[in-house]
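Thread: quick sanity check before group meeting

JM: Hey all, I'm pulling together slides for Thursday and realized we never actually wrote out the predicted structure for the chain we discussed last week. Dropping the sequence here so it's in one place. If anyone has concerns about the input, flag it before I start.
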Amino acid sequence: MGVRILVVEDERTVASALRRGLQAEGYDVDIAEDGEDGLWRAQEGSYDAIILDVMLPKLNGYKVCRTLRDSGDWTPVLMLTAKDGEYDEAEGLDTGADDYLTKPFSFVVLTARLRAMLRRGSGAQDGSAFEAGDLLMDPVRHHCERAGTKIDLTAREFAILSYMIRRSGQIVTKPEILDNVWDYEFEGDPNIVEVYVRRLRKKIDEPFGTRTIHTVRGVGYRLEPEL
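JM (edit): ok, ran it. Output follows.
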């Protein structure tokens, strides 16, 4: 069986175009036209990635994604929406989406992001486990924990943290993170890195009371455990 993609999109012309284009790229594609059907298919099927529209009948994309994440399903999710702006994007990411694409979009960009998302979600990163203080990451098993507590990360969050822990103690800039993590020619707002760093801090720092990700004002970030 090939790579299976679930497209949850109520605009039939968009859904049909995505099906044709993705099938031409070699993917197996299923379509759901509303949020309830999309959630059911996602829970009952075995998909490698989900392309999820936000504005859906019956159940919106935010709720679909949040329900999947709350149930422990971390299938990579690429959100599609006609909305725009940092706060809308942040809302999508806060529900656990791995990436976000605003309509109208380029199919070339969508497939590039999908390929990158699939690589990250498959654990294709090389190397063994990395440690920084009590933070441990195993790229092969797509596993992250701190002080023995497992931390669930989206594919994008995992990729960013993996890059930072590989350069533990060094300053990494936003452009470096974009170049090494996004895997395509990024044309959006580079401040999206800040959104992800805030999300990572909520997961790996705030619950434990000490900081591992430090901001170096005007330069970037440094991953280094507090002593």
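AS: nice. The CA atoms of residues 109 and 184 lie 8 Å apart. Confidence is low (pLDDT under 50) at residues 123-127.
JM: adding both to the slides.
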